[in-house]
Amino acid sequence: MLTQTNQAIVRHVDKQALFEDICNIAVELGGLCMALITVLEPHGENCSVAASCGADPALLDVIPEHTLHEFGGRKEAPRTLLSGGSVICNQAAAGASDERVKGVLRRCGIGSFGLFPLYRGDSIFGTLNLYSTTDDFFGKDMVAVLEEMAGDITFALNTFDKEMARKKAEERLQKTSATLTAVFQATPLPVIINDLEGRVLFWNAAAETVFGWSEKEALGKAPPFVPKEKQGEFHRNLASAKSGNSLRGVEIQRRRRDGRLLDMLLFTAPLHDVSGRIENTVALFMDITEQKRAREHILCLAHYDQLTGLGNRTLLRERFAQEASRAQRAKRHLALCLIDLDKFKSVNDALGHALGDMLLVQVARRLEECLRRADVISRLGGDEFLVLLTDLERPQDTVRIADKVLGALTRPFSLEGHTVRISASMGIGFFPEDGEDFDTLFRKTDTAMYAAKEKGRDKFMFFRGEMDQKIRARLDLENSLRNALEHKAFFLHYQPQVDILTGRIEGVEALLRFRHPERGLIPPDSFIPVAEDSGLIVPLGEWILEEACRQLRLWREAGLTDLTMAVNLSPVQIFQEDFAGRTEAILKARGIHPGLLNLELTESIFMEEDERVHHTLLTLKKMGVRIALDDFGTGYSSLSYLKRYAVDEIKIDRSFVRDVCSDPGDAAIVLATIQMARSLGLQTVAEGVETAEQLAFLRAHGCDRYQGYLCSRPLVADALAQLVEGGHDKLDPWIPGV
Ligand code: C2E
Ligand code: CA
Ligand code: CA
Questions:
Q1: Cα gap 492→541, rounded to integer Å
Q2: Confidence label for 619 from pLDDT (cuts 50, 70 and 90)
Q3: I need a labelling partner for 238 at 20 to 30 A (CA). Which of 125, 178, 314, 373 fits?
Q4: What are phi and psi of 424, to 5 degrees?
Q5: How many angstroms separate the alpha carbon of residue 511 from the centre of ligand 2?
Q6: What distance in angstroms lies between residue 494's CA and the mean position of ligand 2's atoms?
Q7: Spatial separation of the C-alpha atoms in residues 428 and 310, rounded to whole Å
């Protein structure tokens, strides 16, 4: 019976089936008339039959009552009755405690019975009730066997419980681990689990995307993303994890499959097995490459000029502080040099910003080439560069350096096929002489730079106290020029151009005048460079052309026909978009024949190897506009361009005419110019003729026309008209420069 019971226990995984089997075994093999198993409710108030075999229905009715009576209300095992807590009654007719039960037992022919408690843990779970028709069935040996049987059932119940608990735990675990896996696969952060050897056990989806290796490629091996030089660090981290340490956001570098390095924050934690031993480590990575780049970029923005890669004002200011204290200790000087490009605006306007930027970059490279490594070069923005010359033994040493810098900047620049010539103006202030702090020194340097500009560009100047005055005047001039166009403060004077042979006035040159609200008339030599720098020359130039054409039209209507009109052009105007087209429109609007317009250009514009300038000049020529070369002899005086652009006339500069009768050198130049022009088929116009002797010389050598005080100063339009009609003696025009 015991063997069969144990086999049943092993066989069954289900409690109910086991109970039924056991009841059958007891009846069939144990020689009992009835066997049943009851289940006691937790607190012992209730009892029900779970399984039975050979049961008499009348008896079954009283079983709960019977069982409860024997074990009633007792949760704890009634160990007092028998050693195993069983209740044995070998004289059922006499021994059963309850009268009603006793009656039923008797009627069913029960001689003896035994009730064996079944335990779950320390509580009674139920009972195994066995009934025999004979008295004294439950002898000592029998009880021992049956108690063992009950013990086996108890054991089975506990095993069932354990199994159930284990299953539940397993389910729970499965659920948790499924949740965790889902979380790890869903997170955008790479999560990796390594064993203590460093081999990858888990590699999530984010690890695939961020590092580039698939899970399959990564599993079972050392992580592929550790750069060679970081292997040591990796193993140190692993060792630290082995001893139970966690990392909380340590900055590391890891390699992507494509070789790119990633900056990351690493978080690690040890993973323990059930016994609490560290088994693996989990690592979580945050890619901070972009943030780091952005941080560095911001740092860079704060200190570096994006275009040229030079430092900016902030960086220079910081370096100044360091260099100043070093210079003081070493008893050396520092020089702060502010460099401003002279014609940058016209390059920008003419060639566009992209080429303008390119020029700035090339300027930066040239500055680097001609300065020492110890010097600090920065760009302030626009076309301004600030240089700190360090470790100067004597302030005078800067002269050589400034010469070198300005020299380097006047060498032509090549911008995508365009050759561009610029120059620079430079102001220099000394530490500690001109200022002990950066701001003071910078202000002085700035003042000096403006003074250099005023001196006529391509120059450097040292700071002197009185410069401030000049600067204010210049700023004021710039402002008043800006308002002048609206306030009609500009007007034109006209100077006659006289045919040397006939003495007839053939044309005029329009000369710009500006009346300053406080300072009165200002000579064009002083304000035109300012207008060019500020960009004002473009609208102003257009106004001049329009005004001159309007006047020419008025004169014609008044009967002064055939007068030519010479108009001076600033190089900036020629760089303008569609200058030729605008000129044509102005001529058309006034009905003026293009052959009457004479555009005066200086030599520098012809040196420009620029496609647009070239095109504009040729278009003007084709329209029939005449081109005059102004101030001949003062510039490069290269003749190749005279042919190339088919210049119509050459204006011999006043400086040669002035001493033509006393200086053989000037006389030779004037002579050579006239002859050269003749051979090229060009006309010559002499400027600044003041004396009859000068005129005689020019006439003798075949000069075509002249301008000058000998005939007339530049005049207002009405006065000019009177002069042409023959009555100029009474006139009192404004004399420039007097
Ligand atoms: P420029 O084109 O060489 O003009 C001739 C200058 O010589 C004028 O000075 C004129 O008044 C002066 N002049 C004429 N005859 C004599 C003389 O017999 N003796 C002396 N000592 N001087 C004489 P201004 O009007 O002061 O103009 C100076 C310069 O300003 C001009 O030189 C020209 O380069 C520029 N300028 C004048 N008007 C304009 C203009 O409308 N547009 C542009 N872009 N530049 C202009
Ligand atoms: Ca002129
Ligand atoms: Ca001139």
A1: 12
A2: very high
A3: 178
A4: -140, 155
A5: 8
A6: 11
A7: 20
Q: Is 633 in the pocket of ligand 1 (CB under 6 A)?
A: no
| Residue 507 Cβ < 6 Å to ligand 1 | no
Least confident of 98-102, 310-314, 409-413, 626-630: 98-102
Pocket test for ligand 1, best of 568, 583, 650 (most atoms within 8 A of CB): 568
Identify the CATH class of 305-464: alpha beta
Q: What's the maximum distance between 2 C-alpha atoms anywhere in the chain?
A: 174
Residue 210 has pLDDT above 80, yes or no: yes
2-163 matches 189-292 in fold: yes
Give me ligand 1 centre to Cα 101, in Å.
Answer: 145
Q: How does pLDDT run across 386-427, given as a tens digit for each residue?
A: 999 998 887 777 888 998 999 999 999 999 988 888 999 999
Query: In b/e form, how buried is each residue of 690-708, taking b as 16+ CB within 10 angstroms?
Result: eeeebbebbeebebbbbbb
Q: Is the pLDDT of residue 79 over 50?
A: no
Compute the C-alpha angle 170/175/181, nearest 5°.
120
- Superfamily of chain region 2-163: GAF domain (3.30.450.40)
| Segment 38-49 mean pLDDT | 77
Among the four given CATH numbers 3.40.109.10, 1.10.275.10, 3.40.50.300, 3.30.450.20, the one describing domain 189-292: 3.30.450.20
- Ligand 1 touching residue 512 (CB < 6 A): yes
The tens digit of pLDDT for each residue in 287-335 reads 999 888 888 877 777 788 889 989 988 889 999 999 999 999 988 889 9
Main-chain dihedrals φ then ψ at residue 547, nearest 5 degrees:
-65, -45
511 lines ligand 1 (CB under 6 A): yes
Q: How far is the CA of 630 from the centre of ligand 2 (A)?
A: 6
Q: Assign domain 493-730 to its CATH superfamily.
A: EAL domain (3.20.20.450)
The pTM assigned to this predicted structure is 0.47
Which atom of ligand 1 has the smallest separation from the CA of 525?
30
Distance separating alpha carbons of residues 36 and 233, to the nearest angstrom: 71
570 Cβ inside 6 Å of ligand 1: yes
* Residue 707 Cβ < 6 Å to ligand 1: yes
Strand partners, 127: 38, 117
Residue nearest to atom 5 of ligand 1 (CA): 687
Residue nearest to atom 17 of ligand 1 (CA): 688
Nearest CA to ligand 1 atom 23: 688
| Domain layout of the chain by residue ranges | 2-163, 189-292, 305-464, 493-730
609: DSSP letter:
B
Each residue's pLDDT tens digit, 639-690: 667 777 778 999 999 999 999 999 998 999 899 899 988 888 899 999 999 9
Ligand 1 atom at minimum distance from 689 CA: 18
Q: Smallest Cα–Cα separation from 426: which of 319, 337, 293?
A: 337
**Which pLDDT score, from 0 to 100, does residue 728 have?**
46
